[in-house]
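Exercise 3.2. Students should predict the tertiary structure of the chain below and write it as structure tokens, then compare their answer with the key that follows.

Predict this chain's 3D structure.
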Amino acid sequence: MTLSRHHKQLNISNILPMDLNFLLFIESVYTCFHEEKDVFPGKHFNLNESELLQSDSFAEILNMCWDESIVDLKQQQKTGNPHSSIHFKQCYSKLFRDNTGSDTSEMVWDAFSLWWWSEYGIKAYMENYTDLFIPKISDQIWEELYKKNIGVSEGNSLYLILLFKQPEKVFPKNTSRLFFTSINKFVTRKELIVKEIVQLFD
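Answer key:
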């Protein structure tokens, strides 16, 4: 279970949105085929060029799907239920050509879901690791806010949104309510994360 710590008026939680990570998974699929880069998940899917969008079209639709998911996440944050978007969304089928969209996107979704939900999958790894450090990071964030005499409204919540990789074609915008970080950055640059979060309130 994801941990939350209530520090004064600021509630900080680590969140692992399946939909955002799925979009990044598809981004990597396209990177493998369009840019000939050897990145996970590689070319393990039996895809061909007829199923893939042109690079510019893909980037546009990917950003549209991303923005749609962010709107959903903000609404979930208001209701206090950050785990409600665990389903296949209609926009996913638009990430592949119309004549193959649904079948291809659902096939990729099924493969991602197995990787995501596995007992030793990426979700379990990211959640278990970040759960260990969220209490300490929360203390450091509140301490820095206190030092800078930065007030926080009662009941404010901050989501640390964990992504399995750094996005390439989407550009997450950090706010005082949503902070995006790759798991690699979380593992290696915790002090920088604290600094960047505090700056959002300054």
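Discussion points: DSSP finds six helices and four strands in the chain. Helices lie at 18-34, 55-79, 101-117, 122-147, 183-188, 190-201.
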